[in-house]
Specification:
Blueprint: E1 5-11, H1 18-31, E2 36-42, H2 43-50, H3 57-71, E3 79-82, H4 87-99, H5 102-106, H6 109-120, H7 134-137, H8 139-149, E4 154-157, H9 162-178, E5 188-191, H10 219-227, H11 250-257, H12 260-271, H13 277-304, H14 306-335
Helix pairs in contact: 3-13, 4-8, 4-14, 8-9, 10-13, 11-13
This protein binds tryptophan and iron/sulfur cluster.
Length: 337
Amino acid sequence: MGKANLVSGMRSTGKLHLGHYMGVLTNWVNLQDEFNCFYFVADWHALTTKYDKTENLKQDKLDVVLDWLSCGINPEKSTIYYQSKVLQIAELHILLSMITPNNWVERDPTLKDMVKIIKNKDGDTTENVPLLNYGLLGYPVLMSADIMAMNGAVVPVGVDQLAHLEITRDIARRFNNIYKTNLFNEPKPRLTEIPLLKGVDGQKMGKSFQNDIKISDDEETTAKKVMQCITDRSRARKDDPGHPDKCEVAFNYYKIFAPEETVKQVECECKLGQRGCADCKKQLGKIINDKFAPIRQKRNELLKDISKVEDIINDGCKKASLEAEKTLELVRNAVNI
Ligand code: TRP
Ligand code: SF4
């Protein structure tokens, strides 16, 4: 039996940060041997909220793929593509939209959260930001088309995407019922244990909060950002005993990026007041830089030959279209269109 198809996507947010790496990318890399993986940049999904900010879209998409490749997503194992290059996904999206009841999408809690975010940001986008465009309402339907076009059986996602995936399962079932077929299986989520990586300021790590460390940051930038990490706020002088458990960001980064012995040593020295926060973060910066050095080196090499990267993407788009066309032939047939 062949490997099952696995589908996952990321919106084209531009250069990825260490949270993406620890949370999603290492997982994606590890899944490549077990499954036939389809990894795509969800550029249409990006437009559901950023339709009025497209000036960097092309570069953002490329940056996402560059990060994937440097982190070990292997084009010989996985299919890497842009969603918008696979027109069959749009076709399937239309067909699925015909059978999706409005209230299924309207009650999607993830969508409700997104609308809230847009509302909060009202001030910094164009005037009169529509709270819920037609395209955004269709977010989970488009996501279903992404998955179902590739006949995805497994979808690695974070908890925030589970509600969407539940709708996908409902839509797949409804399609089968209406058209009396068993064409679609109900794709299963594959949840990842995501170590929550906070931004240097202790808030959620994210590009829009400017508190993130990018996979592609150079050593100097990384070191500088690490120096901004929040530590034990109650500590006044460097020989005061510290509290690693109250060290909001720096010690957490140690736990995520440093070997266990180092973590123990840091904990012990901190508690004894034998370690100043500045030195501690200097060491942390070095640990992170060492860890990402090979990835960054690979990225710089890829940057020297962008046409090769573009070839990889074009090949992936072709492969993905072929796979989707197989599905769409069956779908058109089932729908009698
Ligand atoms: N909505 C996902 C996110 O924001 C991205 C995405 C789009 C996706 N289509 C998908 C993920 C299909 C998995 C499968 O992270
Ligand atoms: Fe955190 Fe290190 Fe400072 Fe202790 S010494 S509070 S672990 S940064």
